[in-house]
């Protein structure tokens, strides 16, 4: 089931529901998945409550409780505002960004964890994005941003050394 508390340009509940079903099958996740598109304020509240982080985030995944029926796989919450902002900065449609976030959330529900799995989730996400015809994924963007930040810092250090090098 898809719940829109906040709309995303170019995305209908029916289109997202169909994508969730297709992506869930591709991920091989059994059970029903509920998706909530909400505000950044709500995401901040959820992130603080469940992860102890007092800031909004783009996507959160909540696996079903161990005692829950096998019909439920879990829930995914997505900030429509952050998805729209990221889509604009990356040059694709907000609807595509939401689908990327849904895929990321589904992989978490399937048990993947990019923070400690030595790239397994990133590899799987990349394969599934190609299969589902989606642009650059969340993990790849983060890795790319980290490389760019590291490269920029290295270049600044090198420039500073050149400026402060004694003239002989």
Question: What do these coordinates show?
Answer:
- The chain is of the alpha/beta class and 168 residues long.
- It contains six helices and four strands, in the order E-H-E-H-E-E-H-H-H-H.
- The protein has helices at residues 13-27, 40-51, 80-90, 94-109, 120-131, 138-164, and strands at 2-4, 32-38, 59-63, 72-79.
- It has a four-stranded mixed beta sheet with strand order 1-2-4-3, with helices on both faces.
- Strand 1, helix 1 (13-27) and strand 2 form a beta-alpha-beta unit.
- Helix 1 packs parallel to helix 4 (94-109), helix 3 (80-90) crosses helix 4 (94-109) and helix 4 crosses helix 5.
- It starts with a strand and ends with a helix.
- The model has no long low-confidence stretch (mean pLDDT 85).
Topology (elements, then pairings):
Layout: E1 2-4, H1 13-27, E2 32-38, H2 40-51, E3 59-63, E4 72-79, H3 80-90, H4 94-109, H5 120-131, H6 138-164
Helix pairs in contact: 1-4, 3-4, 4-5
